[in-house]
Design brief:
61% strand, lipopolysaccharide transport protein A fold
């Protein structure tokens, strides 16, 4: 007759007394220790060396406490399977919950499945499967997860959590959503203790105010400070800031660029480069210092300008346009030089208003157009469609050019055509000086040539107002408008001193001959 086998389902306290010796649960420190169960089943013939534990199951291994509704304990392998309302506490900060747990006491690996939640004091991570090594305090997932802290909601397809350092490493399709911005990348490290996100792959941070792109750097989500390494940029509604490195604070809206910096104004088609730059979002203004250069792109060529410091500020004299944007003004200070194929200049300070395309030059300004050198106390250049339209010379106005136009740039010639007056307006056609209106105290010295282009004399004229017509940098005609007084002299009859009008200063040596010359 076969013996009937019985499965004993009895209270755990009685189970300890009847079935097992007093020290049956006294285990070594590296063995899983059962702290509590309500009841259990043990049938070696049916289940082998496995115990089935029911009700308020608690067990401990090393420094971790684990809880569940039921569990399988494998006595010969130091392994536990836990089910329903699983909870793992590691120290006093990390808690791991889920529906199922596989725990191996030999390698201290806890694998939790279904509705998994990992929490510490700063964040909560949700996924469907999590592997947590209680020895190294490293958790990992490969089945997508969502991480939430006080302000940020982050998702990724794979990742790691380092409990000791409070670092999260996110991999694949990483998206961080903050009330003020959205961050997307492939790899990101985030420290929950210090609220610092470290960028380890091409990353975009988009907000209503701007877009940030970087491949390396960090962002403090609490203090809203950002450091961006080489290849990064900050793009606002109107400007793009690029540099070898960039610092940006989202609260103040101030971005700083260091080394190989450029600020691109997308509205006015202007690029300002240099060694150091700042952009202020709140005032929509920027400045650049160091080896600065402004580049304005026109249809056929570009204008290049240098100064010790270049400022770009909004023109508050006009309202914003339909897009909420405002035209800019450029301010250049100290050692200013500019180069354009048909125009070059120098001064100590300059204002360039993009609204009406005017350039105002101050403090010893000099403007070169073709063979003509223009000077005055201040100069205003009016441009249209990238071309010079008018030039206004205000006070102590002077225009000079070499009389021998076949030898461009030779500075030892003693023969110069000259116009002097209180105020002058130069009118241009096809970027060439066409005629000049002189108003107040007009004086001229012009050399006359015969049919063989040989100089035969010099004409000196004085008139309150006069109009001078020019063709290919040569005087075509002079119209004396008020109280004229003109005399034509043989060249040898006048001394060198008499061939110079008051205020004459030939400054060809200072003329930029290329865009590289603006730095000299």
């Amino acid at each position: 007759m076969n013996k009937r086998r019985y499965l004993f389902l009895i209270p755990y306290s009685l189970f300890l007394v009847i079935l097992f010796p007093k020290d049956s649960f006294a285990q070594k420190s590296d063995r899983i220790e059962i702290l509590n169960v309500d009841s259990s089943i043990y049938d070696k013939a049916k289940f082998g060396n496995m115990r089935i534990l029911y009700g308020n199951v608690q067990f401990r291994h090393e420094h971790a406490l684990m809880y569940c509704d039921s569990a399988y304990q494998y006595l010969d392998s130091n392994v536990m399977h836990a089910f329903s309302r699983v909870r793992v506490n590691q120290g006093d900060t990390v808690t791991l919950t889920g529906k199922r747990l596989f725990y191996n006491g030999d390698n201290q690996l806890a694998q939790v499945f279904e509705n998994v939640v990992l929490t510490d004091r700063k964040m909560k991570l949700n996924t469907n499967r999590l592997d947590y090594n209680l020895n190294t305090d490293i958790a990992s997932y490969t089945d997508s997860a969502t991480t939430v802290d006080s302000e940020n909601h982050l998702t990724s397809r794979a990742g790691y959590y380092y409990s000791g350092s409070k670092d999260l490493l996110f991999k694949k399709d990483v998206v961080l959503i903050n009330p003020r911005y959205t961050m997307t990348c492939d790899t990101l490290r985030y420290n929950t203790l210090h609220h610092i996100a470290t960028f380890l792959s091409p990353t975009y941070i988009r907000s209503k105010e701007n877009t940030i792109y970087t491949e390396r750097g960090w962002y403090n989500t609490e203090k809203e400070n950002t450091y961006l390494d080489s290849g990064s940029y900050l793009l606002t509604k109107t400007q793009k800031l690029v540099g070898d490195s960039i610092l940006y604070n989202r609260t103040t809206g101030i971005g700083r660029g260091f080394r190989n910096v450029s600020v691109t104004d997308t509205v006015n088609k202007v690029i300002i480069s240099g060694d150091y730059a700042e952009h202020h979002e709140l005032s929509d203004s920027s400045f650049v210092t160091g080896r600065t250069m402004l580049t304005q792109i026109f249809e056929k060529d570009s204008l290049f300008m240098h100064g010790d410091t270049l400022f770009a500020i909004p023109d508050t004299s006009i309202p914003v346009d339909a897009k909420g944007e405002r035209k800019k003004m450029l301010l250049a200070f100290h050692h200013v030089k500019m180069f354009k194929a048909d125009m070059q200049g120098k001064c100590d300070s300059l204002v360039y208003n993009f609204r009406d395309s005017t350039i105002r030059m101050f403090t010893d300004p000099v403007l070169w157009s073709g063979l003509n050198q223009l000077t005055a106390d201040s100069i205003i250049i009016q441009t249209a469609n990238g071309h010079i339209d008018k030039v206004y010379l205000n006070s102590a106005s002077f225009i000079a050019s070499r009389a021998d136009s076949t030898k461009k740039g030779i500075t030892d010639s003693l023969q110069f055509n000259q116009i002097r007056g209180k105020h002058m307006t130069g009118y241009f056609e096809d970027n060439k000086l066409n005629h000049i209106l002189v108003e107040g105290n007009g004086q001229t010295i012009y050399y006359g040539k015969n049919s063989k282009d040989k100089m035969v004399g010099v004409n000196r004229a004085e008139c309150s107002d006069l109009m001078i017509y020019v063709n290919e940098n040569k005087v075509k005609s002079i119209t004396l408008l008020k109280k004229p007084d003109a005399t034509f002299y043989p060249i040898k009859e006048l001394s060198t001193k008499e061939l110079r009008l008051k205020g004459f200063s030939w400054q060809f040596i200072k003329k930029p001959l290329s865009k590289e010359d603006i730095f000299n």
